[in-house]
C-alpha cells in the first residue's frame, strides 16, 4: 500500500510554482499509461491560468490550498481549500486567485 502526504506535496509544488517562470508546477500522484485513473497535483502562483482546454470524459478537481476559479463557458465556479468540483464536460480554464494547489482526478 502506497501513501502520500498531499499537504507536503502541495507545499513542495507551490514553492516550485512560485519560482517557475510559468508560475505553475505539477506532479503525477497516481496513474499513468497503465492505469485508467490519473491524479495530478497542480500548483499555480496567484494570477496564473491554465489556458482553455477540452475536458476529459470524467474529471474532478479538489482544492487543497488557496483559491481558484474554474471558467466553463459563461459559468464560473470559485473554490477554496476543501472544495470539490466535478468538472463539466466542456472547454474550460483554471485561474489561481491566490497561490493555489489542486488535485485533478481524471478517468481515462
TrEMBL record:
This is Cupin domain-containing protein. PANTHER family: SLR8022 PROTEIN. It comes from Nocardioides humi.
Amino acid at each position: 500500500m502506497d501513501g502520500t502526504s498531499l499537504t507536503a506535496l502541495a507545499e513542495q509544488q507551490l514553492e516550485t510554482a512560485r519560482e517557475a517562470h510559468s508560475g505553475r508546477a505539477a506532479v503525477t500522484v497516481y496513474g499513468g499509461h497503465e492505469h485508467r485513473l490519473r491524479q495530478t497535483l497542480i500548483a499555480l502562483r496567484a494570477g496564473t491560468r491554465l489556458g482553455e482546454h477540452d475536458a476529459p470524459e470524467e474529471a474532478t478537481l479538489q482544492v487543497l490550498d488557496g483559491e481558484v476559479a474554474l471558467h466553463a463557458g459563461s459559468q464560473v465556479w470559485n473554490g477554496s481549500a476543501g472544495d470539490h468540483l466535478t468538472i463539466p464536460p466542456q472547454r474550460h480554464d483554471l485561474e489561481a486567485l491566490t497561490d493555489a494547489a489542486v488535485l485533478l482526478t481524471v478517468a481515462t
